[in-house]
Amino acid sequence: MVIPAHIGREVCDRERQLLVLPLRHGGLGLTNPQTNAKTEYNNFMLITAKLTDQIYNKKLGFTTPQTSNIIVAQKANYDKRRTQNARISVTNYLRN
After folding, report:
1. Torsion over CA: 13, 33, 48, 56 (sign)
2. What's the predicted TM-score (pTM) here?
3. pLDDT tens digits along 70-88
4. Among the listed residues 3, 8, 10, 19, the one whose alpha carbon sits nearest the alpha carbon of residue 89
5. Cα–Cα distance measured from residue 54 to residue 50, given in angstroms and rounded to the nearest whole number
6. Under 8 Å between Cβ of 62 and 54
7. Which of 15, 47, 61, 72 could potentially form a cystine with 11 if both were Cys, beta carbons 3.0 to 4.6 Å apart?
8. Any long-range contacts for 22-27 (C-beta under 8 Å, 24+ apart)?
């Protein structure tokens, strides 16, 4: 629904695959909520788990260096997975 609103017409599956590719790979970087929602939610939960735990346990002084390092590491893993998924998307698009 979002892509036709941006493009001004309905698009076929092949065009949709191209539009969701990252900009550096020739796409528009549009996201597909149907395919990304569960993964994005799980990544959000992983990245914020330590901070959430501290909030629930009413620990003051939110971020210790250890907690900060955990959050930074989880964010780096998230970024790495997104890059890998983008490469897979490009490879799949080019194969078709």
Report:
1. negative
2. 0.52
3. 778 888 888 888 888 888 8
4. 19
5. 6
6. yes
7. 15
8. 22/86, 22/89, 22/90, 25/86, 25/89, 25/90
Residue type, 40: E
- The pair of structure tokens assigned to 20 is 């969701």
**Residue 11 token pair:** 């698009």
- Would you state the structure tokens that stand for residue 39, as one six-digit string? 């993964």
Identify residue 33 by its one-letter amino acid code. Answer: P
Structure tokens at 65: 């260096």
Cβ neighbours of residue 47 under 8 Å, at least 6 residues apart?
71, 74, 75, 78
